[in-house]
């Protein structure tokens, strides 16, 4: 099945690959460049084997990605992550060698299904981060298409045959079919004469609402409909009725089809939340407060079962008089900044110290005798988070970390990151059981369910249920978010992604750097609940923490008191523009190996360290190089084959920059050496972790999972790198004694010196 050159970026012929798929009998259609979104009006329903049509599509835009519908007798398992691949093989392996595609982080496994065997849906198969694709119900992006996050889909061995479905998976398929075919007990309504018509009208109303929702709002509407109907489940409506009705409605919506996994997870999340807040069919008639809902729902009993017409007639407006509202005073955890029972966002550019500030607040809460929950995804628990909390003076017995665990077939547990809103019920239960009063999400976007995108409705689907939980439990929720690169005083627009991040929450605290006074400014740039704008200064200082591997220097937040300065004034200051002479002096040398960035990356590689772009920017800024110059110079090293950008392990994805010209190493400029790398060294002397612990390499969530609360007292605080020494500035350096390099070194040094003299 030779389809395409498997080498990314070299001779990629998407049109030719699409035509070869049609020759194999696979139906093909175009998707937008570097996207999974169909480029045609009817999506995968337009898939064809017509050579003329395929040629027409790719002649009009050669960069189209390739969408394929597998043959009717083939099932494809879409495994989202390397950890999912490992868990899948542990449960169902050993798997036979078969046609396999490598995706951005996971794999597509192709198997041939025996005749007469029913292929279950993703929800029925019920495995974390595993989607099932068939030609009749969905499609795949095929090699050599470009992935939205970079790189290309590739075949592991494009000549491999498609193996028969192994017995272990065949058994699972038959188990699902048997359960599906088993007779289900009939619902036992509270009062048949009144309730059955009501339930039917409620189901139809929510089906109509879901089926008529446009793309972009479908996930939120599905969650809302599941919640509304879930409120009726404790009193007679069955979960199967709700699931079947809403699944059918979701599949009938227009636009790019919702995946079975997305539908299953969203319905489950809404159902569970609704079942925790039940209402009876006659609540509205009695004027009960439980009849009210956050969204329009069926709130009254229809007079008679008149069919679909009642789907609209049953929707009623609930009116609450102002005299019935119990007014309450706002209670503050931190005056004017952080209200109780609400979600507060702490926003700022990467590398400033938001996590250190959050750790200080968490430590303060523990010293008051309360338990806190710290959910993190970007930093190592043992190397970074726990030492920061300890340095801030936290009572570590009162610090709780959360992990989601899913039991596997072999009796072990698979660890995954929390996924919201799907795991909200698990989180709420843990907060109640451990008496948590403050939750920190570092960073909150990392805990957004994979079925949610960056649209406003998707962000609301994450934040609104979280805010409702905070209000129910009266806990403080602090979420960390990052600003983008643009300069603006509008912090709502600065937050990466949707404007809904700042619209949903009632309080946003912006962090900005005041370089002149060597401090950070924190301002409540959105303060719906506060009568005033409040700013305070804070400085990140270094403190020693004793760990098992020795002493470690970490940062702590030292508050400097309130100030009249405003963080927005510092956010709106662009980087100074350098002259051409300055750019030549600082940012470019005739020989790229002599550049400061080449020496920095090579020294880090020799020391066995991986560096993030922000590490480089921080180091470069200390040496007088602007952020813009870093992003101008690094692509030159990549194009020259000297460096590359790679993805780290785990979720969310972390990008690292790596030196790859290891045979020669960099040339050292005159009088310049490299220094230790790390995101916070310029402020606090903290050494970055070289690798992420395996227990923090995460996947996605699944039914039957449980949150494991780990008291921080049992977390071993590990020195970031007990044997670490600063990268040797002579790492891989070319010298005049290097064979075949004498002239090149001399020329590079001479040119660099000449430029310096010319500028002088």
From TrEMBL:
Comp. bias regions, Basic and acidic residues: 274-285
Bias (Low complexity) ranges: 286-295
Pfam families referenced in this protein's UniProt entry, alphabetically: AAA_25 (PF13481), Prim-Pol (PF09250)
Residues in DNA primase/polymerase bifunctional N-terminal domain copies: 18-169
Source organism superkingdom: Bacteria
Disordered, as annotated region: 270-307, 666-704, 718-740
Gene3D superfamilies with a match to the protein in the record: Bifunctional DNA primase/polymerase, N-terminal (3.30.720.160), P-loop containing nucleotide triphosphate hydrolases (3.40.50.300)
Protein name: Bifunctional DNA primase/polymerase domain protein
Species assigned in the record: Mycobacteroides abscessus subsp. massiliense
InterPro entries the record matches: DNA_primase/pol_bifunc_N, P-loop_NTPase
Signal peptide from the UniProt entry: none
